[in-house]
Design a protein that fits this description.
The protein is an alpha/beta fold and 421 residues long. It contains 15 helices and 13 strands.
């Protein structure tokens, strides 16, 4: 079976990493999978990049200009929404024509327009769409937050200046998607049960199949290794308990840096003895900025893109924290747990599906810095750490391994192609 996975980027961003891992998982389980991307970052032969051009750059810019204009020329939320007015017609590419299944992932920011999606649906090929955020089931936003207008019809969009209007840009795109989705059945895959519940409430996805299948991970690569060896490789202290925090950009407010900083201050005040005993490892752009903001010794690292380096970093620490305020099924938690590292995260998105509270980590009350601090202290000082570590690793092996996830996707593909062998 030939499957074409379509994603904007090959390696940058959580969706790209998940899509790439799925391609590997499928290929390791007998499926001829290829990946089509706008932004190709490696020389991997199974990944095809669209031809680079100035027109491609202009498409991206033009979409931002229209969003900026709709937002009354305010920069706020400029990248929190997408209108899919520009993209590339991929239906003429040989990879598309050879494929039996078209598997869409994150296709925003100039990869595919709504017109391009129309051509894909009219091609007659079965379409599977893995949702890495809410954009496929809303008008224009990637995360609806408290808004539920997408249940009936998007309008008065909270992401638009002064709350938008009755027929604002979110309404226009919502109506366009509604017509588009009527052309052919789409099988929507959500990476978390949380996202499936929200997708099922959308008026856009009525009469379409919605299935929950998590992202896969290579448990042959991401696995427990010798902690002291890992620390030596990264020049990290051997005598401290280390907390890991990381994201592409540390100062991104959506990643919850303010709550993590506040949690560290609470810990230092309640348990002053741990200030010298614990340390914080941080990776990502602007990681140096954390040095002056928390009362612990900080060990900053640059953004890490190499998976082998990530494995060393996870294995070098004792705890991974994810104070993110918007999440689906974070790869970072899955990676840490696969390496036997317990995690602390907020009760948001798919995080409570990954972290089993007080069993392999701690799920803190949403936006509670105090409870987040409780979780860190419990994991490092009160919980049975060896049991936590073992349970974290076991959860990934049973729920997210390549073979387990590939099998679920192959079952979906077989039903769509009528191949029940």
């Amino acid at each position: 079976m030939r499957v074409l996975i379509v994603n904007t980027s090959e390696r940058l961003g959580g969706a790209a990493i998940a899509a790439n891992r799925l391609m590997d998982a499928l290929r390791n389980n007998g499926i001829q999978a290829k990946m089509l991307v706008r932004d190709k970052q490696t020389d991997q032969i199974t990944v095809i990049g669209l031809k680079k051009s100035l027109w491609q750059i202009w498409q991206f810019v033009w979409e931002r200009i229209l969003i900026w204009k709709a937002n009354h020329f305010k920069k706020h939320n400029l990248f929190a929404v997408d209108i899919a007015n520009t993209g590339t017609d991929i239906t003429l590419l040989p990879e598309f024509q050879q494929a039996e299944i078209i598997h869409l992932h994150w296709i925003n920011q100039g990869m595919l327009s709504l017109k391009d999606l129309r051509k894909i649906l009219l091609s007659g090929k079965p379409v599977v769409w893995t949702m890495h955020d809410m954009w496929p089931c809303t008008g224009i936003c990637h995360h609806a937050r408290e808004c539920n207008k997408y249940h009936q019809e998007c309008q008065y969009c909270p992401y638009i200046y002064k709350g938008g209007s009755k027929k604002d840009i979110s309404y226009q795109v919502f109506k366009s998607k509604q017509k588009l989705y009527q052309l052919a059945p789409i099988t929507f895959i959500t990476c978390s049960q949380w996202l499936k519940e929200r997708a099922s409430q959308s008026a856009l996805l009525t009469n379409h199949s919605i299935i929950n299948i998590p992202n896969p991970i290579n448990t042959g690569l991401f696995k427990p290794r010798n902690k002291q060896d890992a620390r030596q490789k990264r020049n990290l202290p051997s005598d401290k308990k280390l907390i890991l925090f990381g994201s592409a950009k540390i100062t991104d407010k959506r990643k919850g840096i303010d709550y993590f900083i506040e949690s560290c201050k609470i810990l230092a005040e309640k348990y002053p003895e741990v200030v010298k005993e614990w340390g914080v490892v941080v990776y990502g752009k602007e990681s140096e900025q954390l040095k002056s903001l928390v009362p612990f010794e900080v060990y900053p690292l640059n953004y890490i893109s190499s998976e082998k380096e990530l494995v060393d970093i996870y294995n070098a620490v004792d705890l991974f924290v994810n104070p993110s305020l918007e999440e689906n099924l974070p790869n970072t938690i899955m990676e840490a747990m696969a390496c036997g590292i317990p995690c602390v995260g907020f009760n948001v998105g798919g995080i409570p599906e990954m972290i089993d509270h007080l069993h392999n980590g701690y799920v803190a009350d949403y936006k509670s810095a105090e409870d987040f601090a409780n979780g860190i202290h419990w994991a490092l000082s009160e919980g049975e750490y060896p049991s936590l570590s073992e349970a974290a690793c076991r959860k990934v092996l049973t729920s997210y391994s390549e073979s387990a996830i590939a099998k679920k996707y192959i079952e979906v593909y077989n039903k769509l192609t009528g191949n029940n062998d």
